[in-house]
């Protein structure tokens, strides 16, 4: 590992020691952060996979039903039937903090007038298949939103984990060894200087004694 | 208050309209990119995109992966799933952990 380009002085040495101290502490903290995030992530991603599987299955069934409904009705009729929905779905969103990652929390707020049928069309002109399809769709919706929330959380966590892992590795394999090496280099250089000046002094003393004698 | 958007081919997503979601039928995937950028600026917290469209506009979707909102979620269309959503999860695991541990278990 290459040493840093610094002057081998006592000032520099104490500065580097301080930096090493900070780097080691940071490394430990980041490592803990990464481990905890991975643990949380593992739980979430398992859930994510399960929910997605079930949503995809159910949605396919619902879409199939809707396809059937479309097949037995004229396109104009269908268009007219879905023109004015009686329901409105609104979302209440807030943020949750997982290991300093701000992930979304989604809450559904269904706003529909009391006592209004969820089917905004007359039953005379529409097929029963449409009713079935619509009710299946509305059953899946909460699950789909749950999926949205959890999938987003996983995406954001994955991003943060990647970043943290990079930082941990940079500290562990680059910064800390480099600092240690440089500190070693400076210590040795300083010791060497020490020894050099000591021998010089001894030599001078010898020479002076010789001259006096 | 935030809304939910659905983007995809008309036949697949029309049903969502009755649930009170905002439906945006499109034909070309080129429009989808612009549409999603527009929806993201407006108050859409969740945007469901059919997989066949999502496949074409991966770049646009990736852009919103690191911000909390909107959540762009691929859903199957009426021809069934092409596995894009699952692939997304798989990529996600590989990104975070380094190896795929979820799907490797089975196969």
Key structural traits:
heterodimer, A: 213 residues, mainly alpha, Helix Hairpins, two-stranded antiparallel sheet, 3 helices, B: 107 residues, alpha/beta, Rossmann fold, 4 strands, 38% helix, globular
Largest sheet of chain B: 4 strands, parallel
Overall residue-averaged pLDDT value of chain A: 86
Biggest sheet of chain B, strands in spatial order? 2-1-3-4
Instruction: Compute the number of strand runs of chain B.
Output: 4
> In total, how many beta strands of chain A?
2
Approximate strand percentage of chain A: 5-15%
What would the average pLDDT of chain B be, to the nearest integer? 81
Coarse shape of chain A: rod-shaped
Could you tell me which chain pair has the largest interface and how many residues each side has?
A-B, 60 and 39 residues
CATH classification class of chain A: Mainly Alpha
Report the CATH topology name of chain A.
Helix Hairpins
The whole-angstrom Rg of chain A is 35 Å
Topology (elements, then pairings):
The complex is a heterodimer of chains A (213) and B (107).
Chain A: H1 10-72, H2 75-81, E1 88-98, E2 101-111, H3 128-212
Antiparallel strand pairs in A: 1-2
Chain B: E1 3-8, H1 10-13, E2 22-25, H2 29-41, E3 44-50, H3 51-54, H4 58-63, E4 71-75, H5 84-97
Parallel strand pairs in B: 1-2, 1-3, 3-4
Summarize the structure in words.
- The complex is a heterodimer of chains A (213) and B (107).
- Chain A has 213 residues and is mostly helical.
- Chain A has a single domain (10-206), classed as Orthogonal Bundle (Helix Hairpins).
- In chain A, 73% of the residues lie in helices and 10% in strands.
- Chain A contains three helices and two strands; from the N terminus they run ααββα.
- In chain A, a hairpin with a 2-residue loop joins strand 1 (88-98) and strand 2.
- Chain B has a single domain (3-78), classed as 3-Layer(aba) Sandwich (Rossmann fold), CATH 3.40.50.10580.
- Chain B has five helices and four strands, in the order βαβαβααβα.
- A four-stranded parallel β-sheet of chain B has the order 2-1-3-4.
- At the A-B interface, helix 1, strand 1, strand 2 and helix 3 of A face strand 3, strand 4 and helix 5 of B.
């Amino acid at each position: 590992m290459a040493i840093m380009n610094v002057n081998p002085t006592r000032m520099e040495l104490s500065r580097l020691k301080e930096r090493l101290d900070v780097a080691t502490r940071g490394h430990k903290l980041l490592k803990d952060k990464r481990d905890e995030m991975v643990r949380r992530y593992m739980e979430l991603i398992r859930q994510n996979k399960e929910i997605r599987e079930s949503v995809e299955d159910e949605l396919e069934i619902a879409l199939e039903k809707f396809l059937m409904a479309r097949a037995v009705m004229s396109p104009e009729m269908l268009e007219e039937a879905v023109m004015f929905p009686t329901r409105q779905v609104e979302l209440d969103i807030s943020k949750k903090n997982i290991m300093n990652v701000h992930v979304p929390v989604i809450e559904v707020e269904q706003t529909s007038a009391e006592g209004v049928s969820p089917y905004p069309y007359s039953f005379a002109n529409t097929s029963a298949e449409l009713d079935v399809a619509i009710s299946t769709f509305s059953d899946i919706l909460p699950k789909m939103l749950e999926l949205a929330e959890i999938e987003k959380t996983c995406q954001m966590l994955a991003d943060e984990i990647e970043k943290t892992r990079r930082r941990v590795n940079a500290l562990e394999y680059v910064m800390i060894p480099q600092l240690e090496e440089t500190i070693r280099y400076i210590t040795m250089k300083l010791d060497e200087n020490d020894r050099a000046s000591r021998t010089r002094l001894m030599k001078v003393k010898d020479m002076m004694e010789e001259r006096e004698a | 208050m935030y809304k939910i958007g659905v983007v995809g081919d008309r036949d697949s997503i029309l049903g969502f309209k009755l649930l009170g979601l905002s439906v945006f039928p499109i034909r070309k995937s080129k429009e989808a990119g612009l549409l999603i950028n527009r929806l993201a600026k407006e108050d859409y917290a969740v945007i469901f995109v059919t997989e066949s469209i999502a496949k074409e506009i991966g770049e646009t979707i990736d852009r919103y992966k690191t911000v909390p909102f909107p959540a762009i979620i691929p859903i199957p269309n009426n021809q069934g799933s092409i596995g894009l959503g699952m692939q997304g999860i798989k990529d996600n695991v590989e990104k975070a952990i380094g190896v795929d541990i979820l799907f490797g278990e089975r196969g």
